[in-house]
Amino acid sequence: MSERAPGHEYFRHGRFRVTEDIVRARTKSIQLSTIEGVELTRPLFFLALAVCAGLAGLSVVWGDILYPGEIALFLAIAGGVGALAWNVGTLRVFSKLTRQQGWAVLWWITPLRQMRDAIETAIEDRSRGGRPRTPPPPPPAPPGAEIDPDATVRIVRPGLRAPQ
Q1: Taking the model in full, what pTM does it have?
Q2: Is 91 contained in some domain?
Q3: 138 in any annotated domain
Q4: What is the pLDDT of the chain when averaged over all its residues?
Q5: Pick from 29, 30, 44: nearest CA to 89
Q6: Range of 11's domain?
């Protein structure tokens, strides 16, 4: 049995990995060919926003009987909860096998965003037949220009001879 060389790796971060064949996220994995879509959300943010508003409201309503340190603590907790919720996201992968219910991974938003981009790039490359991305061709040379063998462009005025 011959061993296959590992596929092109689009993304790796700890236990998260995207290759040209498979997507792995901690304890879950799925073949890239079965993925229909990817969604990235911040599911905890609106709940955390309510908690932040509640703590700020308590600070205002009970501010006359609270010590300044307690008010500062409430506001610090509110800010910390909001910042934490903003940095946590859910990556949901929709598959042809699971129909509309996809599996989801809850983690920090930055690696999940990079993973989503890698999955989308891998899907695009797969739809092009596995061809790697190529840069666009250079623009054509302007009229009256000669292209040297060393790929430099010299612009020559009409009627003048190009330097040798």
Answers
A1: 0.68
A2: yes
A3: no
A4: 82
A5: 44
A6: 7-133
